Structures are given as C-alpha cells and as structure tokens.
Backbone:
C-alpha cells in the first residue's frame, strides 16, 4: 500500500467506559511539473508529487485527513475531494472561487476534513481551469476496523483510474477555445492507470492487471476523464458491481460498466477463466452529434502462469452510441438498503426544483465568429466570481452573488422537441439558490435539444443524493413522480442525465455552506453549466459553518 509521504497519527480519546480510536492521516502534496512521454511524444505536465495518476489517499471511515498542498508551479491551483461529504468543512471542499480562492504559486494550504459515514472509493482532482487532466488520484476509504464489507471479502484490491490524454498542453487547449469562442479540441487518447496502450501510429505496452487463478479481486474503478463518459469491459469475464460513489449497492453481474467523469464503481472480479491474457477495453459513449475522442484504451488482464507472447483473448466494445447499454446499467443500480446501510430517502420535499440544462450561443466581440459557445441551467450561464462564494456568504459580503437563482425555467417550451428556431442567447450571472438547513430538496435535471442534446454527468458537492427517477423526453410532473423509486434508489454524488431526457434526485440539505452543482464534463463547466446552493446555518454550532482556517488563501 503506497502512502506517498503520508504519515498516520493515532489519537486515543477517553470516553468512559470505552476507548475510541481516531486516526489522523497526514499527506504532503506538492504540485510540480513532470516530463511525461505518451503517444510517442514528451511534454511537461502538472502533477502531484511527480505521479500520473497522483498518489492514493488511504483512510478509514471516521478518520481525519490532513493534506498539505504546496503549489510549486506557475498555475493557480485548488484540489477538490470529490464525493467527500465535507460535513461543516466546506472550507476544505476545493472548487476555486466557490469555497476558496486559489493557492497561488509558492503558497500552500492545509485541507482538513473528516470522513464521516463514508466508506468506499472516491477521487480527488484539481478544481480550477482544466488542471484536473493530470492532477487527480484515488481516495480509498476502508470500513472502520473490524467492520466487514457487505459482500464476500476479496483476496486483493486493485485501483483502476481512467482518464484522457492530450498531446498538446491542456491549458493551451482551453485557453485557445476561450479566445476563439469555439469548442476545444478533443483529447488524443484514453488512459488506464496513466497508460494508453497501443494506439495507431504508436506502440505502447499499456497497463497489465495481474491475477491468480481462483482469486477474487475488488476493482476500484474511477473515471477521472475531463469530458468523456466511458465503457469498461474485460474480455471473457463478468464482474459484480457492489458499490458506486462510495455507497454500497445491491450486487449485480455485468460484462460492461458505464461510468461518467467523476463517478466511481467498485466491482468484484473472480479469476475463474483459463490461464491466459485477456483484453481490457475502455471506450467512449456518445449518442449524439457532438465530437468525442473515439480512441479505445487497451490494457490487459494477465493470469499468473501465462506464457510470454501469448495472444490475447479479444472482446468487442459497445457501439459508441450504445444508449441501451447505458440505460440498462443505470437501471440495475439500487441501494443496498440494509438495516446497517439504509436508504434514507426524503419522502416529502420542501423545495421542488426543475432545472433545464443545455448549451447556447452568446455574443463575443473578440471571438472568431462574433459569438461563443456557452452552457446554462434555466437559461442562466454562471459567471465565476472573483471572491469565493463561501467567504462572501460567511462574512455577508454584498455584490459577490445573488440568491435569486430560478427554481423553474423562465420560459416553458418543448425542451426535447425540435428547437432549431429557439433564441440561443442566455442570461449571465453569479446566482445561487438558498436552502434552509435540513430542508428536503428535489431537483429534476431536464436535458434539452437546443443546438444538440447530450448526456450530462452532474455532480453535487457537499451531499450524496438519491436518484429517484429518470426518463426520456420531457419530465411529466403529474405522472412521472408516481413511478419514483422511494425505497431503494441508488445513492451517489454524480449522475448522468440521459440525452434528451431527465433525472430526478433528492437530498437533505443537512450541511451548511455553499455547494457547487455542475456538469462534470469540463467543457460544459467552463461554458457556464453550473450553479451553487447556499445552505443556511441551523441551530447552534453543530449546525453552523465554523470560522475559516487561518491559512485560507485570499483572492
């Protein structure tokens, strides 16, 4: 188990009549430039501690995690601990200009949070510009000591991180797109644990997953890609899904995993096939006209005892537009909903929100065509502030944001119909939606067909949510709620809104602070497909935001 300059400190607190152990996990993260060769070309990339993917954070449920992040590059940097609940620790959440100002070159910041009520696989990544292309890694949260998994104990565990790779400087890619107003160039390849495998025009050995016959492996699969939803498949093998986004699920067997950017999936793999080498294929999903990197990443599963140069057992990848495969996988996901791990779904709601999501075109005098691509929620394209929203909220600084984000679309229309005649211009603003502490919230995320429909993986900071319903076309507020699953819906932090369809989620606003909701396709986040919830304090200090740490970066 690699700890990458990590140290563990044991605190023992005396609480009569029992002793309670609380471990503090200490990590030092240095943002540095690292020369890296892929696709037969070398470039310098920002990394953590020179690693791509970055170091894994290991902890147990209930542990306190301290990460000292020191910025030794010329980019401003923040890191987000994706999926960590951050209960009353919003100052450590990480999104630039939402919960903190960036860490400037030469400066450092201590991220300090406790892993409360969570166990499983999450990820961490940069949360400013497109730096998360190479600044990302895994978070592995083991159950409390002595607490077993609610599934057969694996013999070994393996982390598999999926990502994208550009030959060009990724920051140059997005800067050029911002300057021209055009969509950014797509990536050149996908990677498995940092390796592309063989691609046309460049040979590469790729990643190898070594296994022994008869043993069972827990695969911790992470999609750290910027812009691509992906299929993951191992030739000749089924795997059993047991967890997504660090929440246990009812187990089910599948030969293909569908995983969006920011999502994680834990699955059991039993090495029960003939000794040999088996292809692992990671391929993109895109069921609309939007350009996508269609290069399949190649890796191999290799049994102990396989002869050198053995030909691999091959497999077929799902079609790039295999919508039924994505829908089937998502429909199988159910919360474990056991006595120990119940699904506490809000049965009634205090806030019933309907958010239309899509892209548009706004004027841009300096852009090539006099216009630029934008994205919006309820026709609001979010403008990033220059003061962090959480600071503005905590110190009651006026003029940074307004709390009048619309609960419904400003105009009702056939969201998934033929909208070629629609006005493509959006409104702009730094607008948030305010929630009372502990209120129950339902959000219906409605896809639209303006310009082009598309699958949107949406991520909510500071909370898990329950996916109570989904469908194609327009959400029907009279009939669709009758079909909601309020018993064992999957619980997660990131969910894909189907192309020209909708997703309904519910959560309890039990975490005071300012929390980002955004599409996890980085191109859309850049274009403004984001908003924030402001959750007010409750009663007393245990339901309130604590003061910011003394080393919180300033803008």
Residues:
């Amino acid at each position: 188990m690699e700890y990458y300059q990590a140290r563990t400190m044991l605190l023992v607190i005396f609480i009569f009549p029992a002793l309670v152990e609380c471990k503090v996990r200490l990590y030092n993260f240095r943002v540095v430039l690292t020369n890296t060769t892929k696709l037969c070309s070398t470039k310098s990339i920002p990394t953590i501690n020179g690693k791509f993917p970055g170091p894994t954070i290991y902890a147990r449920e209930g542990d306190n995690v301290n990460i000292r992040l020191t910025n030794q590059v010329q980019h401003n940097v923040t890191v987000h601990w994706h999926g960590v609940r951050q209960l009353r620790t919003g100052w450590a959440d990480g999104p630039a200009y939402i919960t903190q100002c960036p860490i400037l070159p030469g400066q450092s910041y201590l991220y300090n949070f406790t892993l409360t009520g969570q166990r499983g696989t999450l990820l961490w990544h940069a949360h400013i510009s497109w730096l998360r292309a190479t600044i990302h890694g895994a978070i592995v949260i083991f159950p409390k000591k002595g607490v077993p998994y609610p599934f057969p104990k694996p013999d070994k565990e393996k982390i598999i991180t999926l990502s994208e790779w550009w030959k060009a400087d990724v920051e140059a890619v997005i800067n050029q797109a911002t300057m021209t107003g055009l969509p950014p160039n797509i990536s050149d390849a996908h990677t498995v644990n940092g390796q592309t495998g063989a691609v046309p025009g460049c040979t590469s050995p790729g990643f190898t997953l070594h296994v022994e016959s008869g043993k069972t492996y827990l695969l911790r699969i992470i999609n750290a890609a910027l812009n691509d939803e992906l299929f993951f498949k191992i030739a000749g093998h089924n795997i059993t899904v047991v967890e997504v986004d660090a929440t246990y699920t009812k187990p089910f067997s599948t030969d293909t995993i569908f995983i969006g950017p920011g999502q994680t999936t834990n699955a059991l793999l039993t090495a029960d096939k003939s000794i040999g080498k088996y292809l692992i294929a990671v391929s993109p999903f895109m069921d609309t006209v939007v350009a996508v990197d269609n290069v399949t990443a190649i890796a191999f599963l290799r049994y102990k005892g396989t002869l050198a140069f053995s030909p691999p057992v091959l497999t077929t990848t799902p079609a790039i537009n295999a919508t039924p495969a994505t829908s089937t996988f998502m429909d199988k996901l159910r919360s474990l909903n056991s006595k120990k791990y119940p699904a506490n779904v809000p049965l009634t709601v205090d806030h019933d929100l309907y958010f239309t999501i899509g892209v548009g075109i706004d004027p841009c005098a300096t852009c090539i065509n006099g216009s630029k691509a934008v994205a919006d929620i309820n026709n609001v394209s979010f403008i990033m502030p220059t003061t962090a929203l959480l600071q503005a909220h905590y110190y009651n600084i006026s003029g940074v944001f307004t709390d009048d984000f619309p609960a419904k679309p400003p105009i009702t229309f056939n969201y998934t119909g033929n909208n070629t005649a629609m006005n493509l211009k959006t409104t702009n603003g730094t607008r948030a939606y305010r929630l009372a502490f502990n209120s129950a919230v339902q959000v219906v995320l409605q896809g639209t067909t303006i310009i082009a429909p598309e699958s949107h993986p949406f991520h909510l900071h500071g909370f898990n949510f329950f996916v109570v319903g989904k469908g194609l076309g327009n959400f029907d507020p009279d009939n669709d709620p009758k079909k909601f699953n309020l018993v064992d819906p999957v619980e997660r932090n990131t969910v894909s809104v189907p192309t020209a369809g909708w997703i309904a989620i519910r959560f309890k606003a039990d975490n005071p602070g300012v929390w980002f909701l955004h599409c996890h396709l980085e191109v859309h986040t850049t274009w403004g497909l984001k908003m924030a919830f402001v959750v007010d304090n409750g009663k007393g200090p245990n339901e309130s935001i604590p003061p910011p740490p003394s080393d919180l970066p300033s803008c």
Helices lie at 170-180, 323-332, 389-394, 522-527. Confidence is low (pLDDT under 50) at residues 1-5, 10-20. The radius of gyration is 23 Å. Residues 405 and 433 are 5 Å apart (CA to CA).
